[in-house]
Design goal:
The protein is built from nine helices and 16 strands. By secondary structure, it is an alpha/beta fold. The strands form four sheets. The chain has a seven-stranded mixed sheet with strand order 1-2-5-6-7-8-9.
Length: 253
């Protein structure tokens, strides 16, 4: 449980592909000025980290809401709801469909009306030009990105990924490590203009959140933007994805 700012904590967990490759997962805890808390995402922490979380939040009683910001991150929702039955459980429409037995709040995290409920605490952004909940459930390109205004920390699942490269590889592949999801080609909407909409969204977000200092990415770590701005990191991620975006533009022009 990393205390990244006075009122922001990030908790890291394991998520293994085929039970072997750990690509990581996370959730973040944010304290309101009132002293209550909001969780972003859900996972089941190990015993020591769970005790630390409960101790900080009055045995969990001070956690007022859980925001599940990625439609395909569902594994730990049941645990968090059972651990915090009093908290508002907010998710996407897919969460409601896949886990109807849980007591979901009627507000959907992808709706602007829901964002307005937390506007004193967070900024929200959803990528343009990609399907938010695609039919292909292996395409995890889109999510709701959340920025804690006070600390200027961004919490993101899948849409932006952190390439945590070994030291010897970094010497061969220098530069920023924030990248868009590798299935961006499959996630782009199959229509003219989708690639340009995605590019515009990424550039605008980079500029709007340019003073972001830290990015907490589900896969696979925490990025401290010490040597570049968030705008520069987003521009570099776009440059890395330029072939994918150009091919989509050509195909649907």
């Amino acid at each position: 449980m990393e205390h990244l700012a006075p009122n922001f904590w990030n908790l890291r967990g394991q998520f293994k592909i085929a039970h072997t490759i750990d690509i990581g997962t996370h959730m973040s805890l944010v304290r309101r000025p009132s002293g209550t808390f909001v969780l972003i995402d859900a996972y089941e922490p190990e015993d020591e980290e769970r005790e630390e979380l409960l101790a900080l939040t009055g045995n969990g009683d001070l956690i007022e809401a859980v925001l599940n910001v990625h439609a395909f991150h569902t594994i730990h929702c049941k645990f968090v709801h059972e651990a915090l039955p009093h908290a508002r459980l907010i998710g996407t429409r897919r969460h409601h469909l896949k886990m109807p037995h849980l007591n979901w709040d009627p507000s959907l995290i992808e709706d602007n009306a829901t964002h307005s409920q937390f506007a004193d605490l967070f900024d929200f952004s959803i990528p343009a030009g990609v399907d938010f909940i695609p039919e292909d459930e292996s395409v995890h390109v889109s999510s709701v990105l959340v920025r804690h205004r006070e600390s200027r920390i961004v919490h993101v699942d899948d849409t932006l990924m952190y390439l945590d490269l070994p030291g010897f590889v970094e010497k061969l592949v220098p530069g920023p490590k924030l990248r868009f999801h590798p299935k961006l080609a499959e996630g782009l909407e199959k229509r003219p203009g989708a690639a340009d909409d995605y590019i515009r969204w990424a550039r605008d977000l980079g500029e709007a959140w340019a003073d972001t200092q830290i990015v907490c990415a589900a896969h696979k770590g925490i990025v401290h933007l010490d040597e570049q701005t968030f705008a520069e990191a987003m521009a570099d991620a776009l440059a890395q994805a330029s072939k994918t975006l150009d091919e989509h533009r050509e195909r649907y022009s």
